[in-house]
Amino acid sequence: MAKNTKFDLDLEYGQIREKRIENLLKGGKIEIKTERSWWRKTGNIAIEYEYRDKPSGIFKTESKWWFHVLELDNNEHCMLVFRVSRLKKIVNKYKKTHTKNIGDYRASKCVVIPLKELFSEGCYKL
User: What is the β-pairing status of strands 54-55 and 44-51?
Assistant: First the structure.
C-alpha cells in the first residue's frame, strides 16, 4: 500500500476546494459589487447597508456569497469573496465607527473598511 505523500494530500485538498468553488459558482446565489478606483486611492472598500433609511446592500441581499471586485483601469485586479453571514458581522463591527454617507445626495450609508483590516485578527475571529 502506497503511503500518501504531502503532495498527494495537498493535491486532494486543492481538488476538494476547487469543487467547492465550482459548486458555488454554478448553483449558489451570489451578489457582485465592483469598486473602480476609490479603493486604490484610499485603501478602503465600502459596503452599503442602508439607502434612504431602509436596509440595502449587505442587509437586503438574499445571496449566500458576496463578491467584491476591485478594478484597475476597467479590468478586474482581484476579487474578495465573503460568505454573506461573515460580511454582516464585519459590517456590524465597524458600523458605529466607520460609516459614511456616499453616492447621490449622500443617501447611501456604507461601512468604509480599510483593506488591511479585513485580514487582521479582529476580522477573521468574528
Answer: antiparallel
* Side chain identity at residue 85, one-letter code: S
Q: Which of 77, 65, 67, 91 is nearest to 36 (CA)?
A: 77
Averaged pLDDT, groups of 10, the chain, 126 residues long: 79 92 85 93 96 97 96 94 95 96 94 93 80
C-alpha cell at 115: 483593506
* Beta-ladder partners of 33: 68
Q: What distance in Å separates the CA atoms of residue 80 and residue 102, rounded to the nearest whole number?
A: 21
Region class of 89: left (phi > 0), else alpha (psi between -120 and 50), else beta: alpha
Q: Determine how many CB atoms are found less than 10 A away from the CB of residue 45.
A: 20
The pTM score is 0.85
User: Residue with C-alpha cell 463591527?
Assistant: 93
Please give the single-letter amino acid code of residue 88.
K
Rounded distance, CA 42 to CA 89, Å? 22
- Name the residue ranges covered by the structural domains of the chain: 29-124
